[in-house]
Amino acid sequence: MEEQIQQLIEQLFQVLRTILNSTAPPLDQADEALNWFVLFVQWSAIILSALAGLYAARRRGMDFFGSMVIAFVVSLGGGTLRDVLLGRDPVFWLAEPVYAVTVLVIALLSILAGRQAQRSQTMARVAQPIEWIADEHSRLFVFVDALALGLWAYLGTIYALQMSISPVVAPIMGVITAAFGGILRDLFFAKVPQSFMPSQLYAAAAAAGAIVYVLLWELGADSTISFLACFVSTFTIRITSVKFNIQSR
Amino acid sequence: MEEQIQQLIEQLFQVLRTILNSTAPPLDQADEALNWFVLFVQWSAIILSALAGLYAARRRGMDFFGSMVIAFVVSLGGGTLRDVLLGRDPVFWLAEPVYAVTVLVIALLSILAGRQAQRSQTMARVAQPIEWIADEHSRLFVFVDALALGLWAYLGTIYALQMSISPVVAPIMGVITAAFGGILRDLFFAKVPQSFMPSQLYAAAAAAGAIVYVLLWELGADSTISFLACFVSTFTIRITSVKFNIQSR
Amino acid sequence: MEEQIQQLIEQLFQVLRTILNSTAPPLDQADEALNWFVLFVQWSAIILSALAGLYAARRRGMDFFGSMVIAFVVSLGGGTLRDVLLGRDPVFWLAEPVYAVTVLVIALLSILAGRQAQRSQTMARVAQPIEWIADEHSRLFVFVDALALGLWAYLGTIYALQMSISPVVAPIMGVITAAFGGILRDLFFAKVPQSFMPSQLYAAAAAAGAIVYVLLWELGADSTISFLACFVSTFTIRITSVKFNIQSR
After folding, report:
1. Cα dist. B211→C7, C67, C109 in Å?
2. CB neighbours of residue C163 within 10 Å
3. Is A223 near chain C, with CB under 8 Å?
4. Which of A133, C188, C218, C231 is such that its CA lies 20 to 30 A from the CA of C173?
5. What is the pTM of this model?
6. Are C66 and A196 in contact (CB under 8 A)?
7. B249, A64: Cβ pair inside 8 Å?
């Protein structure tokens, strides 16, 4: 009995490891701890932004389908546009199903949980904290999102460079990956994209990080160091801007 | 003389057969009757949705160009987005001109007929029934559209599978093919997509059909039977939802 | 000293020539004067439409990032959509960075100049005429834009033909290249595209030019003559429509 459980857990880990390996951001394998940290940031951000998209859609009275589409667009839309412009065929979530499946399962469970919460007190107690975390203005959300911002900026830029796109325009792909999920969401909400109006620095932070990466890359810096510089500068600019309410103009 | 007419008719049929063959949905050639039925559904749906798009655009005061674009987007937009995401280059209506030509000619004739109808009583008598049929709430439209819904769901899914996309995400392509024509139309109308708000089941019906197809396909079922199951389940869900006003939430 | 300046100028010219050669529209090399004229029209139009997009975005209260995106979309959006639909991977401004760089530098300088103009009288005297030129209703803008309209119609059509797209649908790519920059801008402004509503002929002029090109091309006309016919007919229709206020319906 105990052996079987152990086997099951091992198998589960095996599946998890396969998923993680197939979705690991392209970093040199030098530092395993860094790789795991990056994977953790990536998946936390995908899940949190799916939830944030979902709640935003529900607040606007959208149904099951609309909410799923918005969750999808917010978390995977930027990378999708990046892949279409670069010509990475098919787009990443068709090549690697775990992204789409995660977002759809998360959205599905949340919608069902939300319905239960309207009826049962116990369920409401579970749903409430999730809703808090997924609130775009919650501290946790802003923190994880700022971490992810640097990661998206890096991913868009490196994918472009890997396809021999000039380093002069590669950062644009970083910005698109980072910022266009929210922009596409606002298109579906039929409103002018939030990030186009004066607000705390978001796309600009991603742009700065992507440019830092490209500069270091051009100077021949180690790829892990270049990544960390991109990551840290994006995060710092974003968090500083939120902390001191520095607004774009 | 009579011989010439016969020849002309034969040639016309030849052209028609070529068009039909080049746009036949990818079904096994087992049943010719089924193939013709599917072709009939496909072309009726393309023409009807082009007309529906056209009238919707005219009602909003759009001009010649805007109406043509909306007609195009409603009838061919879903398949276009599918092709872009899958990387089927160029998109189907560039590879196979008959789609675009049909939609543009239909739109052109309808606009001209509409203008004549404002002046001549005879023309008005011709235009009126077409407008009724193309009304999205007419029985005929809902019927043909429900038939086509299953076809689009099937086409998107099979194209994805043919490109070795995982069966786990292939149904998403079915839903996009079926539902995104209307969604893109609403973007151009600068309003929140209708199908994102509570309404009778549409995208959900396509999703169900696409999932049924993939399940049967995975179980190794005959491809014609899998197609029919997809087709019938989509149609049944859609029509039941309209008949009994079952709304998505 | 003088020699060094001469060398610098020569080097600058060398860079300029390289840029121009790498972005020269695909015309037969028969007539060099024509090539230079076409290049001049292309770059004037890109710069002017970037400025027009920028000012439109600023008037709507958009920030730095939003204004850059709109400038980008207005001047390069049509060609981007064309490339995505045709499957020209990656899109032209990723393959040839000078387009994106030009638009972003122009936008950047204009935003900075605009801010200076609010504070300094001298700067205001420089910024004012630029704003006039970039006004979509200024005579110069309409003139250059009408010239470019024919060029975009030609470019979209010829790129499609070069990829063996049927001449029956190739003009659609011409229209998309010419008209969809403004249409995408309006999507981001969350309003129904201007060019979809009754107005002076714009997309229709591009369509006419593209069709003229395809017809002559089919008849085996010289490619320079076909280009000129496309260019002149688009320009004439557009300018006549503006001059006599001929409105689409």
Report:
1. 68, 43, 53
2. 15
3. no
4. C188
5. 0.90
6. yes
7. yes
